[in-house]
Write a structure and sequence with these properties.
Order of helices and strands: EHHEHEEEEEEEEEEEEEEE
Helix content: under 10%
Strand content: 25-35%
Number of domains: 1
Largest sheet: 6 strands, mixed
Number of strands: 17
Strand order of the largest sheet: 1-2-12-9-16-3
């Protein structure tokens, strides 16, 4: 899969955001990344194979802003379909009743009313989802101060698994939709390969696996944008294992055994539009 890699590094973030770096890290090419005959989409294979990839570690503001600009104007969080632009989820408007619990509703952001009509439904092979405003210290007191929030103060994680999926729908409906792209802010990626996104087409065909660069106890960003709407779902891997009372991060030298634990903040994606 050929991709334009857009790197944003440190203090040069704003200037580098619109540059292309052929020496940048290529996306990981999974088996079956080519479109399957049952998962064909209206866009040509050449279009599907030419995404722009936005990536940054530690100082990520420039990459996030460049990705937002590439997707288009931020749309209101109302039901229905907009002709273009983007939607975002930053967790910070989640009410207290759904914060610091392990039962965050998977369809919370596909309600029929504002501001929850955002066209995204979650699933996981774990037990559920959680939004936290205390670094998930309600699960494990050792997590206090471990994870930061890119857009304060809430962060997000699957529970019982390090894997989850986002499916797109026309906002506030059960009508399947496609997006032009998806990006996510990860928090506390210690090791290369610990955090990634795999974008999927309408038939479940892989559109590529993309890894977030590491930034221990900081932020990492990966965003992928296609010229047209082809992304029906995204599979997210967040760390090498799930959060939990007995789970320690590799940076915690007082406990073991430990794994690279990673959580998420902002989701940024192209307006979900009805797939033709």
């Amino acid at each position: 899969m050929k991709a334009r890699i857009i790197l944003v590094i440190g203090a040069l973030a704003a200037a580098a955001a619109c540059s292309q770096s052929p020496e940048g890290p290529a996306p990981v090419q999974p088996q079956g990344a080519a479109a399957s005959s049952t998962g064909s989409v209206s866009a040509s294979a050449a279009v599907r194979a030419s995404p722009d990839v936005f990536t940054a570690a530690c100082s990520i503001d420039g990459a996030v802003a460049a990705f937002q600009t590439a997707l288009g104007t931020l749309n209101p969080n109302t039901a229905g379909e907009n002709p273009g632009g983007r939607r975002e989820i930053n967790w910070d408007a989640v009410p207290a009743a759904f914060t610091n619990t392990t039962s965050f509703p998977a369809d919370f952001f596909n309600a029929t009313f504002a501001p929850r009509a955002r066209g995204a439904v979650f699933s996981t092979d774990g037990s559920g989802f959680s939004v936290s405003d205390n670094d998930f210290a309600f699960l494990n007191a050792d997590y206090a101060g471990q994870f930061g929030a890119f857009s304060p103060v809430r962060i997000f994680s699957a529970i019982g698994s390090n894997r989850m999926r986002v499916d797109f729908f026309v906002a506030g409906s059960s009508t399947p939709a496609v997006s032009t792209g998806f990006g996510v802010v990860f928090s506390d990626v210690d090791n290369t390969g610990s955090a990634s996104i795999m974008l999927l087409g309408r038939g479940g065909n892989s559109l590529g696996l993309y890894e977030a660069p590491p930034c221990p106890q900081g932020f990492s960003f990966i965003g992928v944008k296609f010229p047209v709407g082809v992304v029906a779902a995204v599979e997210i891997t967040s760390g090498h294992g799930p959060l939990g009372a007995e789970a320690s991060d590799v940076s915690d030298r007082n406990h073991g055994p430990a794994r690279d634990l990673v959580v998420m903040d902002d989701f940024i994606y192209g307006e979900p539009k009805r797939s033709n």
